[in-house]
Each structure stands twice: as C-alpha cells, then as structure tokens.
Amino acid sequence: MTIFEKQLPVGWQWVKLEEVADKSHYALSSGPFGSNLTSADYQSAGVPILRGLNVSSGQLTLQDLKFVSHAKAQELIRSAVKPGDVVVVAVGSSGLACLVPESLPYAIMSQNFNKITPDLTKVDSKYLEICINSEIVQKQLQQEITDSVRTFLSLTKLKNVEIPLPPLAEQKRIVAVLEKCDRLRRTRRYALQLSDTFLQSVFLETFGDPFVNPMGWEITQLGNLLEFPSQNGLYVPKDNYENNKSIAGIEMVHMSDLFYGIVSTGNLKRVNICQKDIKKYSIDENDLLVARRSLVYEGAAKPCRVPQLKEPLVFESSIIRLRVNQSKLLPVYIYYYLSNERVRLAHVLKYVTESTISGINQSGLNSVEVINPPLSLQEKFAQIVQKFERFRTQQREAERQAEHLFQTLLHRAFRGELTSSDFDDEAVSALSQEIDVKQAKPKSTGDIAEYLHTKVSQQETEAVQLTLPGLE
Question: What is the pLDDT of residues 139-175, one digit of tens each?
Fold first, then answer.
C-alpha cells in the first residue's frame, strides 16, 4: 500500500500546488515561448537568465549564466523569478524543483522552467521544494509528463499535482530536521560535479585548447572518422511500448536519457520491435549517442556514452548513433571532445539550427571538424579516464546512499513519525565516515581524491559569494 492510499497524519491535507501559490500576478507562470527568448538576446551583463544548463546534479547552479537587457527582461516580466520562488524544470529533467537562492535577487527563467511563488502563510518555500522532489510527488509528476522531442511538463498539469501539506509550524520543523541530511546529499553531488571538471581539465592539459589547436594536429571532418555512417534512431508507435512495470520487450534510449553523460540502463522504457530493427538500431559500449533535437539551442548535439550492456539496447528517432573507426579515433576521446564547451563553440554550434526546436542533422554532425591527435595520446587519456571512472563509481554510490537516507526520512515525515533526533550532528558524522570508508581511494588517483576531498570540505564550510554583472 502506497502513502497515497494511507490517511495523512492529523492536521495534514492533500492540496493542489495552485492552492499554495501566492495570489499575486504571475505567481504561477511558465518560461517564455521559444521565439520570445533566443541566444540572440544574450549579452555580457544585465538581468540573468536561468537556463536548463543551470540545473546540474539536481541542483540550481549559477555558473555560466547568460544575461539580457533590462528592457528585454521587462518584456518577459511574467517569467521573472526572485528569492523564495520555486522553479520546476519543464523540459529535460522534468519535474525537478529548485528553490531560487538569496544570491540571485532577480532573474528571468527560460522556457525550460515553470515557477511557483508560494503563499508563505500556507507553505514554507524550502518545504515546497523538498516536497515536490519527494518520491511520492515525483510519481504523480511522471504521470503528467509528455515525452515527444524531450520530456515536457506543462504548467497546467503542474498546478494540479497534489502535495501532502502539514501545518506551517510542522513544515518548518521537518525542514530543520532534514537540512543536515540535505547538506550531506548536496555535498556528495558537488563532489561529482568536481569530478566532471577534473576530467575536462585533464583533456585540455593533454590535447591543448581545441579552439586554437596549439599542437597543429590534423583536422578531419567527423564523418570521415566513422566505422559506419551515422544513424538516426527508430520511431516506435505508442502501441509498441510496454507498461512501466513490464519486463517484456527491450529497453530503448530516449532524448530524456541523454543528459547525464552516460545512459543509465535498468529503468528505461521498453518496446516490442522485430529482430531486424533490433539489429539495425542496437548500440554497444563503443557507440556515442548524440541529441538530434532540443527545445534549447545549447542542448542540441550533446553527446552521451553507453555503458557495458547485459542485454540489447536500441535508440529512438531523436538520437543519432556514432560508431567511430577506432584505428583513428577512440570513443572516449570523441565524447570528451564533443562535450568540451570550447569545441562546441568553435566546431559544433555552427551546424545547429536555432528555432523553437533547435537541432543538428546527420550532414551537420558529419561536417563537425575534429582535431585528430596521435592515437597513442588518446590511449593515454583513455587510461586516465578508466582509472578515474572507478573512483567516480564510488562517488555515485555515496551519493545514492545519501539520497536514499533523505527519502527514507522524508517518508517518515509524511507519516508523522519524524523526530528531531532522527538526524542529528552525530548521525551526519557517522554516515559521512561510513561512506568515506567505502570510498577507498585508488592509489592511481590518490592526488585527485585528496583534491576533491579538500574542495568538498571547503564547500561544506564556506558560503559561496556570487557577483552578477549588472546586479552589483
């Protein structure tokens, strides 16, 4: 029996999100329609724009902000956000809620988001964020999300989603108890983010700045470095999809599965297709999947790796498969190459068409210029990545444990069973030490691990101060 079938604690009630929104104008709103805000509006200073790229590892990050003029921001006033608002991802990682921090006094959200300005006489802002991200509310949201080009959660469907609402004083108590666990969870996520930046730094140190190609290596079009021609995925009618609990058919990768660096198998949608299609559209760990289309310009042509597979896996029509000729190019090199922002700026984005749905086709992707360093150097980089991936596996497990603990405590809260002693300082310390012990640092990456541990410790104890151009 799920919590939806159980009676809530005395004094609690189920309420729709629109019932806890403030009564002010635009308290419930969505981002601007695509053509009303494009990259042509961006400038170096002014009013910040919250984009899909500003959500990383389940958190709102204020790195790599874009800006628009104050005049343009006034045109988009219905999409304005301020501290205390809760933005909910509409496109991509749909349903994820993020609280707008005090360090962002004013911004405009892109079409990637919906916004709720909470009525603080009814709901605490932090409780609202936590509640929307809880497993029981996320299950509702997943039923309301459409999956076409990318997953999409409309404002109309969002505001009708129900949340468990206790009295305001109980909300604040729950937030206080969960804050320490949430801090541990955010710290583990931050460690993973540092891992991502480390490998990109190794890439630049090994191969130089791809924007200028300082080593003078040969530049070859991507299409000439493939073992087989690039391949668009398969369109499958809805009737061929299995229900969520079925284990029949085979798993299929969709656009929404591409934005995490590597495909996570085991919970993908399953489809029934013929053996001929399985053979044509199957993928393996040496393949690279590239997003053909995106509702956000910067999201098009993003690459994604494939893990080692235990069963067949196919990909859908909004994805392009690349299988490189490994006598010329290694899959891990081309993944980090196409992921590098300097590469994207110099060699990729010029082939992306920008409109309501931005995208890249096979011809454009095949035309991308690839700096082709010696294979021996690529192999050296691949060895570093392989060693480091073992360390990242341990980090992901630490994050999973922290997330599991948080959701367990949240379930107890929704049953009215959470006490202040459930997660005190001693419990935080014990769990942190237990996870660190399980993260035995590999000798080959000892310096890396020490660096990340130092940076995470700094993040735990230091407040991050941000200065935004135009808002000093």
Answer: 888 887 765 545 678 899 999 999 999 999 999 999 9
- Find out whether 177 and 412 touch, Cβ atoms under 8 Å: no
Alpha-carbon span 354 to 297, nearest angstrom: 6
Q: What is the pTM of this model?
A: 0.69
SS (H, E, C) 372-400: CCCHHHHHHHHHHHHHHHHHHHHHHHHHH
Report, as an integer, the average pLDDT of 32-40.
85
Domains and CATH numbers, the chain: 1-166 (3.90.220.20), 167-217+374-472 (no CATH), 219-372 (3.90.220.20)
Mean pLDDT of 87-115: 89
Q: Are the CB atoms for 159 and 17 separated by under 8 Å?
A: yes
Residue range 291-312, pLDDT digits in tens: 888 766 667 888 999 999 989 9
Query: Where does 208-289 have alpha helices with state H?
Result: 275-281
Secondary structure of 255-271 in HEC code, one letter for each residue: HHHCCCCECCCCCCCEE
CA distance 309 to 175: 40
Are 102 and 87 in contact by the 8 Å Cβ rule? The answer is: no
Report yes or no: 153 and 145 within 8 Å, Cβ to Cβ.
Answer: yes
Q: Which residue(s) pair with 48 in the sheet? A: 67
Phi, psi of 21, rounded to the nearest 5 degrees: -80, 150
Contact 17, 338 (CB under 8 A): no
Question: What is the distance, to the nearest Å, from the Cα of residue 391 to the centroid of all Cα atoms in its chain?
Answer: 20
SS3 241: strand
How many other C-beta atoms lie within 10 A of the C-beta of residue 384? Answer: 18
Is the CB of residue 73 less than 8 Å from the CB of residue 108?
Answer: yes
The pair of structure tokens assigned to 326 is 């490994």
The DSSP-derived string for 96-136 is -EEEPPTT--SEEE-TTEEEE-B-TTT--HHHHHHHHTSHH
SS3 37: coil
Q: Is 376 exposed, middle or buried (0-12, 13-18, 19+ CB in 10 A)?
A: exposed
Question: Any idea what DSSP says for residue 470?
Answer: T
Element (H, E) at 288: strand 288-291
Give Cα 12 distance to the centre of its chain.
32
SS3 28: strand
Token readout for 39 is 């990259």
Single-letter amino acid code for the residue at 328: K
